[in-house]
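Onboarding guide, step 5: your first structure request.
Type a short instruction followed by the sequence, for example:

Predict the 3D structure of this protein.
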Amino acid sequence: MTSETDVQKSADGSAPGTPTTPPPARPAFGRVTGPAGPGDTALAAALQKVLDGHWADTRRATREAMTPEVLSPIGLSMEEHREHVLGQLSRLAETGIPKLGFRKEDGGAGDAGGVLTAFEMLGHGDLSLMVKAGVQWGLFGGAISNLGNAETRKKYLPDAISLDLLGCFAMTELGQGSDVQNLETTATFDPETGEFVVHTPTPSAEKAYIGNAARDGRLAAVFAQLITPNKDGEPDNHGVHCLLVPIRDEDGNDLPGITTTDHGHKGGLLGVDNGRIRFDNVRVPREALLDRFGAVDEKGQYSSSIESDGARFFTMLGTLIRGRVSVGAAAGAAARTALALAVRYGLVRRQFDHPETGKGIPLLEYREHQRRLMPRVARAYAYACAQNAIIAELDEFEKFPDSFDDRRRREMEAHAAGIKAAVTGWANETISEARLACGGAGYMAENRFTAMRADVDVFSTFEGDNVVLMQLVGKELLTAYASEFGDMNQKETVSFALNMVAEVVQEKTRASTLWQKLVDSVTDREHTDLLDRGNQLELLVDRSEHLVETAARRLRKAQGEDGSEAFKVFNSAQDHILAAGRAHMDSWVFMQFVEAIEACEDDAAREMLGMIADVFVLDVVDRDKGWFLEHNRLTTERTKAATAALNRLCTKLAGKARTLVDAFAIPEFVFDVPMLNDGGVDAPVEASAGAEGLG
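The system replies with structure tokens like these:
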């Protein structure tokens, strides 16, 4: 995150301490031409304006601040990688970007959307840097900012923002990952000393996978069951709350009662020092409790502005949804990087001679190569616009929380969970597919795919496992985003959903004036072209509504049953509920994309975006044609026509592929990789494509 003058270059142009690597080997087979030139720059700029969204200035400033040092370094040891990332984190702090996300009264700028957008941009570089930034300022700093009182914020936030105080977000336990409500760590109030005693009662209660815990963190935001004595002196559990617990001294040594363990090598993100934390009756002052939603006085009396334990728990976690939004955004940036690399390579890499011209055929001229990349490019556009929408809504919520009633807040939280699950799952698949699309070159670390694939892997399970998050979306649909959901058990959830789900889903999904205008234009869905926008919206929303309504009917079997039987019914319908969540996210993402297209003022860009939107929908139909056929939403002839149209549009988009990925506006130094810089290589072409590889 430095300017060129901030980092002195060595003779070969590398930063000091950066391991030098030998010149890249030339590919063993096939032909590679020189890099294809940029596409239609005017069109790319117009498309970029749509993708950049409201925080375009923040994106521009972040791009300008990024230098090659933010890329994932190759060949460093784990400790060297950690040190490198910590150095980049310090430089990021110096830019002032992290301040954007904190309230003005806490020394920030009150710009949640700006900081989320800036952190998203880090996804084009080393994801270890993005994750460590998210841990420090999004999770640790966010816990203090959103759960602490004014005095606590004043005491800790300045140092947390400046990086003088590094911290941890100690929520996950070995035995409790997604089930946060049943964490085992305890924080018991001792009325004789006025302190909380934080303890790890069982091996499964040990905090695990915690960023900054292995090396750099000195203070931990610890989530634990808050226990105070009742009037009879018996323990009274008030549910999960957060306390600030020091874990290391200034020299980096564990404090008394604290045991930290380094997780060591992971499958990726080697620049992040993940570790475990165990507490042995560690005492902290009463003021260590972050008491915005639950306080304990000097006598140990507990009070809260939210009476319901369940509602209080979900309110506390709801203030921390930035993490999920940020993870989804960064994963989307990484996937766009992989697609841009693969598209550029597909335009210059030639395989087999054309029978008429005798020249090698660029990979992107092959139908299967178009099909494997262009629908993913289309989804990249849709997800980017949806991500902009959820960031804007979260920014509005943080600025004007009173304008969000409980129902709207829960809807926002569900979409934040859903977009995280949808984008990170897609990113994992997309980066792998992009790697495969580049053959042996994609397997070389120097071409970036392997590090991206390793790093983004865990994005599907941290900040909420994707299955659990998508199930949350389904549950929210079934419970009509009711505020009472926090206190409902499985049986009550089932009962509540039955009578109101259909009307609520329709009301919430069809609330957009644009949606209604477009759908009202469709007079005969069965015979209307699948490229008609209103028909597309109707098709996706109809699938979502049908899945929710039929899931509710399946759950009706649980009425009148005890908790055990209700769970069995719910568990048997879990796949159905997940399908409803995924279908809803498809329709919601597409709606955000359509609204972004409608707001585009450039005619050429609108036309191109319309084509991209068509590919998005046709790809959904092609992937889930079994459902559309089984439920008589489409005939066999229409699904065949949809596949044929998808093929045609993929070929059209492939003709503009470079322009489409140039619009991602990824810093050009990201593409300084050997597979794109071996211009003029002309090696023999093997008879079989299967010959290419590492053999």
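Each response can be followed by summary notes, for example: The chain is about 50% helix and 10% strand.
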